[in-house]
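---------- Forwarded message ----------

FYI, see the Glutamine-dependent NAD(+) synthetase record below. Original note from H. follows.
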Amino acid sequence: MNASGSHHQLRKLNLRIDSIKDATRLCGGVYMYANHQGCDGGRLYYDGCCCIAVNGDVVAQGSQFSLKDVEVLDALIDLDAVSSYRACVSSFREQASHVTKVPCVKVQYKLCQTFRDGMIPTDPVEIMYHCPEEEIAFGPSCWLWDYLRRSRASGFLLPLSGGADSSSVAAIVGCMCQLVIKDIDKGDEQVKADAARIGQYRDGEFPTDSRELAKRLFYTVYMGTENSSEDTRSRAKRLAEEIGSFHFDVPIDSVVSAFLSLFERLTGKRPHYKVDGGSHTENLGLQNIQARIRMVLAFMMASLMPWVHSKSGFYLVLGSSNVDEGLRGYLTKYDCSSADINPIGSVSKQDLRAFLRWAAVNLQYSSLAEVEAAPPTAELEPIRTDYSQLDEVDMGMTYEELSIYGRLRKIFRCGPVSMFQNLCHRWCGRLSPSEVADKVKHFFKYYAINRHKMTVLTPSYHAESYSPEDNRFDLRQFLYNSTWPYQFRKIDQLVQDIDKDGKWVEDRRADSQL
């Protein structure tokens, strides 16, 4: 019997089930696995999925993601089958021959029922594994629902930009509403009572449609500026309609102008974007003020919109930065990444894009397909005929590369030098050692510069083992020497040694011919 407390991570259930099956396959036995279920008041979500295994086979499996507080699982097992299985293990027979036999005391009763018709041992079942896209949908959805009902909040507010990250969060909230309605339809009285309380329904009333429920407990806000495109505005509006959220389209140019006018009165100078001749510092400052205004407006609306609509309570602000942006520091400190909670803060961009494709079909939010196909952009700079801001260009690296850096840094404990050595082997067919060195240096430079942002990162659903949040999973200092003098000097020396050796060129030629 294992009364476990195993939290959810993407693709973790396979390892858990394999461990249980291997333990009983090795020496026989019955393994009853129980696990916590729900949000435990923090970043972790316990995904349940209790199971019973006999002699290497799983004979019963509970649900992995559920809104229920308790789930009971049972199976009929044959203890004689366990004895027979163990008797076939030669090492057990050898050990048993050298020990004193345990005395057997006969009594007038039996704990086990006698054999009769109908008592058929439970057959092995096929394990139900969710794909990563389903895990992203259901895990954070259940976590959000648990957080919402236990915090006594009235709903969520999300700054919805029409991009992949905020659209993913919106889809997760929509999925949460769908799960709630499904459980109500199945007769779950606790979920019905919680939904009626949170949605502030009249006595005897309760939600019957996910879109109608979303209208009561989910606000979405598109905060556009002169730099925003009609494409993102349209995508945000259509997604909000598909989910059913109460949607606002709020232009914030007047607020930005007010801040710039105040700054000009104080300093006598007015910053300009780089496309208009401004410096990098001016360009960054103009982007950051837009982002921070959105955070302030989001919290203001979350606290006052219930009052506007004559409702009680408060709304929780949802963040929408992903794990790769946190690792690179590609976010403004105290912008829309700063919120009450974030359901995707430890999910990679690559996984989120796969989730969007899945959700467009399985959650029936068709606009997500268009969101996924669009190039990632912050839309904080003016759009010109010859220039359009793109995330991967701004970062100097792709999201795919960021995922690789994140896993090497955290899971494989790689610093600059060991990461360079690892990537030299991994990328030898397409990049030279000097090119690999430049990429590694670029990543660690900005990792060091932006590490301080992780100290105020919004509490996020824990989904990846390489999450950079420093509350529990990445306890590191937040002040680094961004020039990494010893490490970068060592990398340069390794590049010179490889170039002198010449073997690298031969290996690359051989790889290109394969």
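H. also flagged this: The chain has three domains: 2-96, 133-251+301-372, 394-514.
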